[in-house]
Fold:
Amino acid sequence: MQYWLFKSEPHAYSFEQLRTDGTTPWTGVRNWQARGNMKGMAVGDLGFFYHSSIAQPCAVGICKVAKEAYPDFTQFDEGSEYYDPTSRPQRPKWYMVDVEYVEPLPRPVTLAEMRAEPRLDGMVLLRRGRLSVQPVTEREWNIVLELSRTPAA
Structure:
């Protein structure tokens, strides 16, 4: 079992929308490291769903990988904002996974709370904040879950 963090701006795609949809393809990732992270995922891996680009960015829920990495169809769609004219169907550059709704966290855990938690000092989110799909260690996973079960400070 591996753990991950999936970032999304709630106005673009929210955790509530994932609850409604049940499952969604995680399209539009155009960062080589994030792409590599998705190619390393396995069905059943768990992830935090993280709302970014809001007043208080935070982890709001849990999702899981429902389908392993496969070519992101948006790279071939000329009408998509994620179209990549240098990518070819026979040699795709960009990949995606499908993620499935699991459950909300007992309460959202803000980026500020994570930054204030010394046990999370090495977390990728706190070092490479702009990475849209990133690994979370089992220890970090458990600490964030612990924070979600305690009252906000």
Observations:
- The chain has a mean pLDDT of 96.
- The first strand starts at residue 3 and ends at 8.
